[in-house]
């Protein structure tokens, strides 16, 4: 491909990357050329212009006279493009809404392992804001805490910063750590 500015702005160029495979390269080249021939055959001209020049002195001197528009379908093109984008945006917004609803369904709230208050579930951050500030002063990762980060039930000292979820709840909690 020619990547000069003039070429990019004034030409339509296509590159096809071929990697070796079990399929012979000859059939890959044939299928690529058929595909692009089909694209060209079905393409519609949106705008076409011609440069008007006059020649004198037996064709040795060329003078630029202007541009003549041969075909201008830009209004129809932009109208159809807008309609296409509107339908595409509608489809994308529906997909986004469905993904958001799914994520909300998958969301699970956790509990501060020191105070038991509701916080977002993240085993790497099992403390609420105020409890974290008091914990960070001591910075003892194995300090026994009072609540399970996943269920909020009393842990009787079985939870800590390094193990914020009770062992009996761990299998269920793993589903919410990195849902895919």
Task: Using brief descriptors, characterize the structure shown.
3 domains; two-stranded antiparallel ribbon; 5 helices; alpha+beta; two-stranded antiparallel sheet; elongated; 180 residues
Can you put this structure into words, describing what you see?
The protein has five helices and six strands. The model has no long low-confidence stretch (mean pLDDT 79). The protein folds into three domains: 5-43; 46-74, no CATH class; 109-177, no CATH class. A hairpin with a 6-residue loop joins β5 and β6. The chain has helices spanning 5-10, 25-42, 74-106, 129-138, 170-177, and strands spanning 47-56, 61-72, 109-111, 118-120, 145-147, 154-159. By secondary structure, it is an alpha+beta fold. The two termini are 39 Å apart. The strands form three sheets. The chain has a two-stranded antiparallel ribbon with strand order 1-2.
What is the string of SSEs from the N terminus onward?
Answer: HHEEHEEHEEH
- Which percent band covers the strand fraction? 15-25%
Low-confidence blocks of residues: none
How many structurally independent domains? 3
β-strand number: 6
Helix content, binned percent: 40-55%
Oligomer: single chain
Rg is 33 Å
Major sheet size, sense and barrel closure: 2 strands, antiparallel
Helix count?
5
């Amino acid at each position: 491909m020619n990547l000069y500015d003039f070429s990019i702005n004034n030409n339509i160029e296509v590159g096809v990357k071929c990697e070796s495979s079990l399929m012979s390269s000859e059939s890959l080249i044939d299928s690529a050329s058929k595909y692009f021939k089909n694209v060209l055959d079905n393409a519609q001209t949106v705008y076409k212009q011609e440069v008007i020049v006059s020649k004198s002195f037996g064709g040795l001197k060329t003078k630029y006279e202007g541009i003549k528009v041969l075909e201008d379908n830009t209004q129809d093109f932009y109208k159809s493009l807008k309609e296409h984008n509107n339908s595409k945006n509608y489809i994308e917004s529906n997909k986004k809404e469905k993904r958001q609803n799914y994520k909300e369904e998958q969301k699970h709230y956790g509990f501060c392992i020191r105070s038991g208050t509701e916080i977002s579930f993240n085993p790497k951050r099992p403390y609420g804001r105020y409890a974290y500030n008091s914990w960070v002063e001591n910075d003892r990762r194995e300090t026994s805490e009072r609540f399970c980060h996943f269920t909020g039930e009393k842990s009787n000292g079985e939870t800590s910063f390094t193990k914020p979820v009770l062992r009996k709840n761990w299998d269920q909690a793993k589903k919410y750590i990195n849902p895919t």
